[in-house]
Specification:
The protein is mostly helical. Helix content is 82%, strand content 0%. It contains 16 helices and no strands. Helix 1 crosses helix 11, helix 2 runs antiparallel to helix 3 and helix 5 packs antiparallel against helix 12.
């Protein structure tokens, strides 16, 4: 039991760090925008560069972990993540910050899937659901600590310090992992670097093309043509990538995984669950600061009814999955999150006081806490032991790519009617973004319903 606790704790810390680096930026985003004097279109890349880097490189990192050892690659990812964090802290402008976020994302690209694979491999099947629920709960602490800690750091120090805190945690995890994490390998295969670069190009190109629609330069024919070309090439590249995966004996993305209904719909529902969540998490702290004039610290604390439910509910959600199956728990998770966001939109329209926002925020948090563990088990349970690492990688690609798409769609919705010029204009844009997030979550209910009872 002691060994299992070490495995659970150290793998959950890796997930915690990866989530923390995404979430802690949210309450610091207003300070970053003010410091660098940038637009919302540029600001989104402080979050999206990190998520896209993870999604684009993740399967390559998983392949390296399967070949050279999951623990070894997990530790290397943490070290690269720490180097990227140093670059972020020292960034003099948004361009350097985005580049450093990419480096941190490359490191984080293996932290979450390798931690999931190590944890799943080390525990018996009848305890995985509960363990994944606890793993999600500990990682969910980043949702609580991240915004609040980020707000406190911005208020008391400067936003650069939100990245320095990664170093002591990362180095401690690497040192302890050497003693307490078991080493394991999967199906060792040669890495096709053409496929790897194709995946990177397709992921980055699609998100950039989407986000470019919010730029003022989109009205210029030359720039519009560039967006169309890059978007079109990304779609063609995606089709070619899938074709190559079907033809090769050593695919980066094993297409046989997608022959299972649970694997397909589990990943689609995951995409929509996190697309909705990231659209909210990008704008909600800004809304609290811009429209309600809260400080960064206050904004972080006011997110607690939403984020705090992850720690309280996720472990019980894992037990519920073991008892009632993935379909029911995932369905209720997506439904409750969508209803919570819809209620949030209605209350923002009538401009109620903050206390009225507590219930819809908590409801959405309960939904996310239920949906996450259920969909994890659905996806990983559909894979064979030899493909477990790659299945975890695919799950996280859908999760993070969904987050990047959700953030971009939220920015597009915001830009259609909103701006930073006045608090009323900003609120109008946020309402559109939040409504889009609610719709994405409710759309995920259909995929959740397709999951078979486990």
């Amino acid at each position: 039991m002691a060994k299992q606790r070490w495995v659970l704790g150290l793998t959950a810390l890796g997930f915690f760090m990866a989530m923390m680096d995404s979430m802690i930026v949210t309450t610091a985003s207003t300070a970053i925008r003010t410091d660098f004097k940038i637009s919302v279109s540029s600001l989104q890349w402080a979050l999206n560069a990190y998520n896209i880097a993870i999604a684009a490189v993740l399967l390559v990192g998983v392949a390296l972990g399967e070949r050279f050892g999951r623990r070894r690659v997990y530790e290397l990812g943490i070290l690269i993540f720490c180097l990227g964090s140093i670059g972020c802290a020292l960034s003099p402008n948004i361009a350097i910050l985005i580049g450093a976020r990419v480096v941190a994302g490359i490191g984080a690209s293996v932290m979450t899937p390798m931690s999931m694979a190590i944890l799943t491999q080390a525990l018996p099947a009848n305890r995985r659901g509960q363990a994944l629920g606890i793993w999600s709960g500990i990682g969910g602490l980043a949702l609580i600590i991240g915004p609040s800690l980020g707000g406190w750091i911005v208020t008391q120090l400067t936003w650069q310090w939100i990245f320095w805190i990664n170093l002591p945690i990362g180095l401690a995890v690497v040192g302890l992992s050497q003693r307490h994490l078991p080493e394991s390998c999967g199906q060792a295969e040669p890495i096709n670097w053409l496929d790897a670069w194709l995946l990177i190009f397709v992921s980055t190109g699609l998100i950039w093309a989407l986000s470019a629609t919010t730029m003022t330069a989109i009205s210029q024919p030359l720039f519009l043509g560039l967006v169309v070309v890059i978007g079109g090439l990304s779609l063609v590249g995606g089709g070619w990538f899938i074709h190559r995966q079907n033809q090769t004996n050593t695919p980066l993305l094993p297409m046989q995984l997608f022959k299972t209904v649970a694997f397909i719909h589990g990943n689609v529902a995951t995409f929509l669950l996190y697309a909705a969540m990231y659209g909210i998490v990008f704008f909600l702290p800004q809304y609290l600061q811009v429209s309600r004039h809260a400080t960064a610290l206050t904004a972080g604390l006011e997110l607690l009814p939403w984020t705090g439910t992850l720690v309280l509910v996720a472990p019980f959600a894992g037990q519920a999955v073991d008892r009632w199956g993935t379909r029911i728990v995932a369905l209720w998770g997506l439904l409750l999150q969508g209803i919570g966001y819809l209620l949030l939109v209605g209350l923002l329209v009538v401009q109620t006081t903050y206390v009225w926002l507590i219930f819809p925020l908590a409801l959405a948090g309960v939904g996310l806490s239920m949906g996450g563990p259920a969909l994890q088990k659905a996806v990983l349970g559909a894979a064979t032991p030899t493909l477990l690492g790659k299945a975890a990688g695919v799950y996280n690609v859908f999760r993070l790519f969904g987050g990047a798409v959700g953030t971009t769609l939220a920015v597009i919705g915001f830009s259609s009617v909103g701006s930073y010029q006045t608090a009323n204009r900003f609120t109008a844009g946020v309402l559109v973004a939040f409504l889009g997030a609610a719709i994405l979550s409710l759309l995920g209910c259909w995929s959740a319903w397709q999951l078979k009872r486990v």
